[in-house]
Write a structure and sequence with these properties.
single chain, about 280 residues, alpha/beta, Rossmann fold, 6-phosphogluconate dehydrogenase C-terminal fold, 2 domains, six-stranded parallel β-sheet, three-stranded mixed β-sheet, about 15% strand
C-alpha cells in the first residue's frame, strides 16, 4: 500500500484504468472516483474501478494523499482551483493531460502551499472514450513523462515516480513542461492532425474502398474532437513548429513526385522505413 486514499477526478478510459490498476495491486486503502455524471460513477463502481464515487469535487478529495485529475486539459486548471482549499497537508496532486506548459504554470500557482503538484503524462490509451474501455493493464510497459520545475517538491516527485512504476510503467522520463510539449507535438499531436487531414482529404466515393492500410493510418482520427481541440489550443506553439517541419517534408516529396525523381524518392522511403523499423 502506497497511499491511504486516492481520488481520481474523471473516471473515463485513463482514470478508470488507473483505478483498476491501483485496486488490483493494492496500492491504496480507498479509491474514490469523482465525476460529473451519476451514470459514469455507477459504471466505474460496477467495474470495480473505484471503491466509492461522488459528484462533489471538494468532498471527494478530502482526506486524499493523492489526487489525479484525468479530465480534458481545458478543465484541469478550473478543477484545481475548486479543490485547492480542500486538499490535505502533504497531498500530492497530478494530472494526466497531453499538454503541460499551461497546466503546470496554472497549477503551481493555484495548488495550496501545503499540497504538492507534479505533472504526469502516461503515453498510453486509445481513440476510445469512457470507463467501459478501461483496462487494468493499460500502462504495462508504457512510457510516462513527468514534469519538473524549480517549484517541484523532490519527495512528491519520487513518490509519484514509484506509483507509476507500481502500475507497470516500463519507462519514466523527467522533462521540463516545455520539452514535454515539444516531444508530444511531434510524436502524438502531429500524427493526429495528419490523420485528420488524410480522412478529410479522401472523397466519399474513395472512402467506401478504405481497407486496412487506410484504417490503420487514420485510426486516431476517430478520437474525441473536444479533447483534440483543447490539445491544439493549449500546445499551439509547439504544434505549429512541428507542422512547419512536416510541411517542408510534404513539399519536398511533392517536388520529387512532380519531377519523377525515382532514385531520390526511393531514398526518402528507405530513410522512413529504417527509422520506423527502429521503433518495433
Amino acid at each position: 500500500m502506497i497511499f491511504r486514499k486516492v481520488a481520481i477526478i474523471g473516471v473515463g478510459l485513463i482514470g478508470g484504468s488507473i483505478g483498476e490498476a491501483i485496486k488490483r495491486r493494492g496500492l491504496a486503502d480507498t479509491v474514490v472516483g469523482i465525476g460529473r455524471r451519476t451514470s459514469s460513477i455507477k459504471e466505474a463502481l460496477m467495474r470495480s474501478a473505484v471503491d466509492e464515487g461522488t459528484l462533489d469535487l471538494r468532498k471527494g478529495v478530502r482526506g486524499a494523499d493523492l489526487v489525479i485529475i484525468a479530465t480534458p486539459v481545458s478543465l484541469i486548471p478550473k478543477i484545481a482551483k475548486k479543490i485547492s482549499g480542500s486538499l490535505d497537508e502533504g497531498c500530492i496532486i497530478t494530472d494526466v493531460g497531453s499538454t503541460k506548459s499551461e497546466i503546470v504554470r496554472s497549477l503551481e500557482r493555484i495548488v495550496h502551499k501545503k499540497a504538492y503538484f507534479v505533472g504526469s503524462h502516461p503515453l498510453a490509451g486509445s481513440e476510445k472514450r469512457g470507463v467501459k474501455f478501461a483496462q487494468e493493464g493499460l500502462f504495462k510497459g508504457s512510457i510516462v513523462i513527468m514534469t519538473k520545475t524549480n517549484k517541484t517538491k523532490k519527495s512528491a516527485l519520487d513518490k509519484l515516480n514509484g506509483f507509476w512504476k507500481s502500475l507497470g510503467v516500463g519507462r519514466i522520463v523527467i522533462k521540463s513542461p516545455e520539452e514535454h510539449d515539444r516531444i508530444v507535438a511531434e510524436i502524438s499531436h502531429l500524427p493526429h492532425i495528419a490523420a485528420t487531414a488524410i480522412v478529410n482529404t479522401a472523397s466519399d466515393r474513395s472512402l467506401e474502398f478504405a481497407s486496412s492500410g487506410f484504417k490503420d493510418t487514420t485510426r486516431i482520427a476517430a478520437s474525441d474532437p473536444d479533447i483534440w481541440r483543447d490539445i491544439c489550443v493549449t500546445n499551439r506553439k509547439q504544434i505549429l513548429k512541428a507542422l512547419e517541419r512536416y510541411e517542408r517534408n510534404i513539399v519536398k516529396l511533392k517536388k520529387l513526385i512532380k519531377n519523377g525523381s525515382a532514385a531520390q524518392l526511393r531514398k526518402e522511403f528507405e530513410r522512413s522505413k529504417a527509422r520506423r523499423e527502429k521503433l518495433s
